[in-house]
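Example 3.2
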Amino acid sequence: MKEQIKKKLSAERPNVVFIIADDHRGESIGAFGNETVQTPVLDSLAASGTSCRNTHIFGGLTGAVCAPSRACVNTGISIFRAMIGKDMMNREHSSVIRPDVRLMPQTKREAGYQTHAVGKWHNDKASFARSFEGGDKLLFHGMSEHTKVPVHDYDPSGAYPKEQEYIERTFSTELFTDSAVKFIEDYREDRPFFLYVAYTAPHDPRTAPEPYASMYDKAAIPLPPNFMREHPFDTGDMMVRDEKLAIMPRDEGEIREHIADYYAMISHLDAQIGRVVEALKAKGIYDDTLIVYTADHGLAVGQHGLMGKQNVYEHSVRIPLIFRGPGVPENKQELALASNIDIFPTVAGLCNIDLPEETEGVSLCPIFAGKSDGVRGIVCSVYRDTQRMITDGRWKLIRYYRSPLTNTGTERIQLFDLLNDPWETQDLSAEPANAGEIERLASGLALWMQASSDILQNKPVIPVTS
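Structure, written as C-alpha cells:
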C-alpha cells in the first residue's frame, strides 16, 4: 500500500531537478544546430523532451544581469515588481527579492516537496532561507575562480555569516555535481523532492579542466556570421567588466580562443549533468523526475563586437530551456515565444502546484498539451536605462536611450528580420517600407513598458528627431 501511494504521488507530483547554468546562450547546444559545440547529454535531454527555443530573459538594470534573471526565474515576476530598492539602478535592487514575494522553491516547499539547493544563489539570503530546507556547497557570490570557490554549508538559521564561508578547490562544476549526486543517492523520503542545481559554468574565467580544455582547435573554430571588430555605436555600457576581457577592436584569433574556451566549459558542464542523469537512473527515478535545464542569460563572445551579456541582442537575451519528464512531449523543439518569467508557472503546472496570485508569467503547458500554438504574442527585454527590445518572433525592434545617470548610450533604434537574418546583421530601420513594422512594435513596446512598471515607461520609444 505504501508503495502504491508513493507511485501515485510521483505520478501527480514528480520529483524535479532544476538545473540553471551561468552565461549559456540559447544556440550553443548541438541539438539546436550548433555544429561545433559537443553537448551529448543536453542533446539527449532535448531528444527525449521539449526544447523551448524562443525563450528570452526579462533583463536587468545593472551589469550583473545574472542576479535579476535568476530572480525572474524563481519568482515569475517582472524585476520592476519582484525586487526592492528605492533606486532601481543600484546593486541592492538587482539582487534583493521582496520579502512578500513567493518563489518557485518556496512554493514547492509549501506544497510538500523537500527543497534542496546546490551551488550559486546570487540573490539575498532571506529569499534563499524561506525557499530551501536543505542544501550543500552554497555560493552567495556572483562568480569566483572555478578552483577556488567560496561556499557555505546549509545554515538552518538562514544567517550564513561570512566567518562560516570556506574555500573549495574542486572545480566548481564537479563540486556542485558531486553534491547533487550525493543528494539523489541518499534520498529516502516518500515525498517528492525539488533539487535546485545552480552552476557557475560556463561563466569566466573559462578554465575548463582537461581533456575539455584541449577539446576544440582554437585556430579552426569558426567565427559567427555577426562577428565584428567593434560595435558601430555606444550601447550605453561599452566599458563594463565583460567588455574588457578581450582587446578592442576585437582580434579574430583572440575571439576564436575565447569561443573555444567557452565551448570547452559547456562540454565539461554537459558531462557533469550526465552524472546527475545517471544518478537518477541508478536510483530508479529517472522517469518519475522532471528535469529542467536553462540559463540565467546568454553571452556575446565576439558577436556584434561585444563580449558580455550587457545588451539585448539574441546572443545575450535568448536562453536554452529544456523540459524532460512526466507530462512533457518527446523530441519536440518549440518556437513559440516565451520569457524566463514563464518558467516557474510551467514547472508548477507540470507538478500540479497552485501559483501565487502575484505571478505574472504564463505557463507553457497548453503548448505541451497541444491546446495552443503559443501563449505570448510578443516578448520584451530590458537592460539598464539604455536599452529595450521587443520581438514578435519575426520582427525585432531595439530602442537605445542615452542615460542621464552615466551620460552614455545613443538615441536610436534598430530593426531586424529574425526570420531572414537570425544573426541580426542587417539593421532595416532606415527602410521606408518598414515604417509600419516599426510603428507596430514601438506601440507594443510602449504598452508593455507601462504594464510592467518599467522605469522608462514615460520615455518615447521612438527617438525624438529635430
